[in-house]
Amino acid sequence: MSLAKLLNGIIIILFLIGAVLLFMLEITTVRQSILDQMSANLETAITALGLVLQGTLLNEDKVLAETIVNAMFDGGFVSAITLIDPDGQMLFHKVFASTQQNVPAWLPHLIAMPPVKVEQELTDGWRILGSLTLEGHSGYAYQHLWGAISRTGLALLAGLLVFSLLIPWICHRLLRPLVEINQQLDLVRKHHYGSELPTPWLKELKAVAGSVNQLVSERKRDMLQQRLKIAQLGKQQEASSHLPLLNLRPLDERWQQQHFYSTQGDILLYRRLLPLKPFSCETSITALQQAVTDWLDRGHDGLSLPLSLLAHEEWDQLATTLAGVPKGRVIDWRWDLATLPANGVIAFMALERAGVAQAFSAIPLNNEVLTLLDPVKPTFISLAVTNAPLYWNLVSQNLHGSGYTVLAEASSITDSDILRAWGIDGYAAGASS
After folding, report:
1. Which residue ranges form the domains of the chain, and what is each CATH number?
2. For the chain, first and last CA: distance in Å?
3. Beta partners for residue 380, in sequence order
4. What's the predicted TM-score (pTM) here?
C-alpha cells in the first residue's frame, strides 16, 4: 500500500469518526432543545388554559370548556389534558388525535423522546379548584427531531463527498516531493541520473531532496571525470579495429552467429545473429524486413545492424518494423560511422519508448557518445578488448556505473579470468565456454 492511500484512509476514517460523534452530539443537543421548548410551550399553554377553565368550571359549563380546549390545542403539540378535583375525581379529560409525524418507523425505536408533562393547580382565591395536567405530543417532537437529523445528515454527507475529493488532492500535493524523490532514487538504482529535484516547501523533505540532488550531482561529476579520463587514455591505446570478432559460427549462406558467455562461469548471456554480407544503405527495404523476420524465427536474442542504416532512404518503414519487435529481443547497432546521423538519437529514443531493447557494438569510448547513449539505456555494450588492464578497468567501472553489461566481442586476451579481473562481464566463445 502506498503512503498516499494510507493517509487517505486514515484521514477519511478520522473524518467518519468525527462526523459520527458530531452527529450524535447534534442529535442529543437537538433532542434536549426540543424537550425544553415543548416544556416551555406547555408552561405557557397551561397558564392560559388555567384561566379559561377557571371561569368555565366555576360556571359548570363543560361544553364551553371543551369547545375552547379543542380550538386551542386540536392538532397542536398537546396530546392530552386532564383536570382532577381536590378529591381525586376527574373533572375533565381530553385526548387529541395523533398528528402526522412524517418520520421513519425506526426512529422512535432508536431515539426515545420521554413524555413532557406540566402540572398546575387551579385556584379561586384561597380555594383549590383542582389540578390541571398537560402532556406534550411525541409526534410533534419527532417531527422536529427528524427535520434536524435530515439537515445535519445531508450536511455531513456533502462534507464527506467534498473531503473524499479534497483529501486525495491534498495528499497528492503533500506527497508529490516524496514521489519525485523515490523516482530519482529509482533512477539512481538503475544507474540513470535524471534532472535536479525541485526544492520542496516542507523543511524535512527539503533536506532529503537536497541530499539526493547532491548525490546525483556528485555521481554525474564522477562519471564525467571518468569518461574524460577514458577518452584521454584511449588516445594512447593501440588500435583495436584490426581485431576480428571472436568465435563467429556460420549458420547458412546468409547468416552467422556469436555467443557470449559470462566470465563468472559457463553461463550463456547473449546470442546474436550477424549477416555474412553486412547490410548497408544499398540493401533494399524488402531484404531488411525479411532479415528481421528470419531473425525472429530463429530465436536469437540480438540482430546486428549497422548504424549507417539510419540514413537509409526508407528508414521510416524499417523503423516501423523494428518497433514491432517483441520484448526480449535486442537490436544490436554496430557503430560503422564517424559521426552519429542527425536522426540517430530520435530513432533510438523512439525504439526505447516502444519497449525495444538495444545494444551497441564497437562504439567510440568518449564522453559525447556515452552521453548520447545514456537516455537509450543499452542492454549490452560490445567492445574489442586490448591488453590494457588499467584502461579496461576504468572503462568497465564507468559502463557498470551507467548500468551496462560489458561484452568482449573481440580480444587479444582469451583468458576469462583476466577479463573478469578487468571488469568484463562476458566474452565471445564457442558452443561451450
Report:
1. 3-161 (3.30.450), 243-429 (3.20.20.450)
2. 46
3. 405
4. 0.62
